[in-house]
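[Help] Beginner question about ligand-bound structures

Sorry if this is basic. My supervisor gave me a protein sequence and a SMILES string for magnesium ion and asked me to "get the holo structure". I don't really know what that means in practice or what format the answer should be in. Inputs are pasted below exactly as I got them.
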Amino acid sequence: MLVFAASDKGGTGRSVTSCNIAYHLAQRKSVAYLDFDFGSPTAGAIFEVAKVERGIDGRVGTHSYLNGVASDPRQVDIWQSSSRTHLRTANTRAHRLVLFPGDRGGAEFPNSVERVERCIELFVKLDSEFDVCVVDLSSGRSVAVEMVLKATASTPLRSLAARWLVFHRWTQQHIVAAHSLVFDARGLLEVGKQAGHDQDELLDSIRFVRTAVPNLNSHLATDNAAQATWLRACDEELKKLANRHKLGRSRTLGQTPMEPVLQWREQVISDADVAANIANEATVTAFRELADKLTDNTWWEKL
Ligand SMILES: Nc1ncnc2c1ncn2[C@@H]1O[C@H](COP(=O)(O)OP(=O)(O)OP(=O)(O)O)[C@@H](O)[C@H]1O
Ligand SMILES: [Mg+2]
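Answer (accepted):
No worries, everyone starts somewhere. Holo just means with the ligand present. The predicted complex, written as structure tokens, is below.
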């Protein structure tokens, strides 16, 4: 299965949430994580692999592969390479979790038939090698988005399962932006249609993920009565806005709570972080649930 992680805006939590989802998926399935955020490949930092923190050196990353410079993009085994002790030691019985980093200093590039062809070849190969391939795409209506829409409409990939996660924060601007990434004139559905997708099928393969949603029952939110009342009213308004913009409950796969650890540091949250009382259990639960729902067909039925 191919999973595309997209967002209209930058800084939505797309990469951090996707890495955490990949981490949980890898407890029961083999997972490839492809960094297709060509302007800012940071998945290596989230998995804490120092040598690929901001992408890989030596022109062997995903950019170089797509540009025809590398014959195969370099693979990094997370369980062996992460400097997080917990990731290295606690996952001996887990399935493979392999990162395909972007190139350090890489940049966006124009789309071309050759790049789309190479993208198709890579997805066909990795789909046969891994149960799930998570592809972290550059934000907005990027070259990466257009390339994978063209690739997945092609004959070799048409029949493969592909699912889209569109990440957005729980704010007015993010809700409107996520809507426009999917539904606007230059959005996923229109670009997908031009690439040869059936629009209804494509829409059925898209779900939204709300990130860093404040917990209205936390002490912080309830100690100040005026603030609590304001937050609740605001939350209600956002729910209405989301419904009007077709980002209501039925199209939403799940949400992650505001997590203090992630406000300070981009990382995988493990059970060890919860056991040490550093991270909140609700955060790990949210990531695990997203991973479960991603591969559970009942969450992907026609709406
Ligand atoms: N649930 C959460 N609670 C608090 N902070 C979060 C949460 N999820 C993500 N963050 C933080 O939000 C910031 C942006 O996250 P991230 O880098 O994953 O976003 P992105 O959409 O991939 O951004 P970019 O477009 O720059 O790649 C990071 O500092 C991250 O740790
Ligand atoms: Mg990112």
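A couple of things worth pointing out: The chain has one domain: 2-295. Residues 14-15, 37, 42 surround magnesium ion (ligand 2) (CB under 6 Å). Feel free to follow up in the thread.
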